[in-house]
Amino acid sequence: MTGYVLEIVQVLLALLLAPGLVGFVRWLKARLQNRRGAPLWLPYFELRKLFGKEVVMSNNASWLFRVAPYIIFASAVTVTFLIPLLGARLPFDNIGDLLVVVYLLLLGTFFLALAGLDPGTAFGGMGASREMTVAAIAEPTIALAIFGLALGAGSTNLGQIVSATLANPGLALSPGYLLAFAALFVVTLAETGRLPVDNPATHLELTMIHEAMILEYSGRYLALIEWAAWLKLFVFFTLLANLFVPWGLATTLTPAALVIALVTLIIKLAVLGVVVAVVETRIAKLRLFRVPELLGMSFVLALLAVTSSFLLK
Amino acid sequence: MNDVLFAQLSTLGSSLALLFGIMLLWRRSLSAYVAAFQWQSAALAVLFVMIGYFGHDPELYFVAAFFFLLKVFILPHYLRRMEKRFGGERESQPYVNIATSLILAGLLVLLAYAITRPLVLVSTLPTRGGLPLAMGLIFVGLFVVVTRKKALTQIVGFLVMENGIALLAVLGTFGIPLIIELGVFLDVLMGFLVMQVFVYHIHGTFESIDVDQLNELKY
Description:
Order of helices and strands of chain B: HHHHHHH
Radius of gyration of chain B: 18 Å
Largest sheet of chain A: none
Number of domains of chain A: 1
Distance between the termini of chain B: 65 Å
Oligomer: heterodimer
Number of strands of chain B: 0
Strand content of chain B: under 5%
Number of strands of chain A: 0
Helix content of chain B: over 70%
């Protein structure tokens, strides 16, 4: 029973912390660029503002345009049920493993691309085609990278992967894990629309990928889509943190263990936020035709992770 | 315990060497290739020292020292001089584009695993885990030679293949006797100087080091 309550708490925590994480990364980037930066809680106010605004839709938009934000938000929320956020083994682990997580993320991306195409604008079509170019190489790489871990743990169940790493700490420094981490880090930058793949703060259509697809949205639809994108960033950071450095996750459901899990999660997310902010400040955005090269490199890293975990047993 | 640590460290060193080799397929500029080659040779020299320590073979310390001197200082010095003279050209149109060649590199490493599988199963050496990676490095070096157009890139690819062969020898047999290794180094240096003369003449004839231009000699 407490397991299920913990799952719901986990999802609410993710929904609550995701805008804060994005606000932290933005503030850090501003500081690194010698600006004062907006406070961490600005994204919460953005959400409140958007939920209060009226929706304006194009006449050419169909039912898909109205339904897509809910599907995108729902798929993002469902993923947070299945990842190890606070606890290592949770009841919903039996429902969803690695492949379900990857396909849920892809479902959100797919409907976002369709929603970009739906109103028939030029920006939406361009954003959708660019997003599919990135997703086509990034999604198999996520699957392969976590599969490399799964081979070491003997199961694609995320909870079991975490337990295997906790039971055998030497695994965390094996070449398979390091290569998978590198691959997953590059894919995180690609899938969440960060530099060098996509500029999250751009206003130029030449450099837009994610922004171009959501250009037509307003009001509560835009709020849901933005929240889902922030949730996706939170999910990727959590996967990076808790699959590769699982110490701190609660193995028993006592309040003390859960508090420790929460504190270590926040620390790990903050460290990852710092790394991503520094990377984004240092690197320039890649030309669009160079993006498949970067993603190809991360695919090779994931492939090497799988072969070194599988064939070196 | 010592054996397990030895195996893990040798696999880690070989993976690092292979990754630097795959950088040649990812980056475009000649200075990036030279830097990748330098880092790879440095990693291999450290690996040789470590294998010499764990495998109780003091000859490997000298081999590592010569290896370091030749491939981290002498050869990159000449490569950089050539690059300053003929460089300024990036590998913009290889025969196989970069994304495809990266995927092919992954498949080549899988092929290397398949080929060396009987050898790894039979061997009892603690370094046998790195054998497929060394084989993969040889394949990747050969792939760079075959699919790149700039003569300097082909030279760096050849040198990476040489690194792979040296790695395979050290992993498979705990190193070859010092005298043979010195002979191999001399061969590499001579081959490199001959290639340098070739690049000088190609540049003199065509004003570019694009080996595709050599096709014009047919007509």
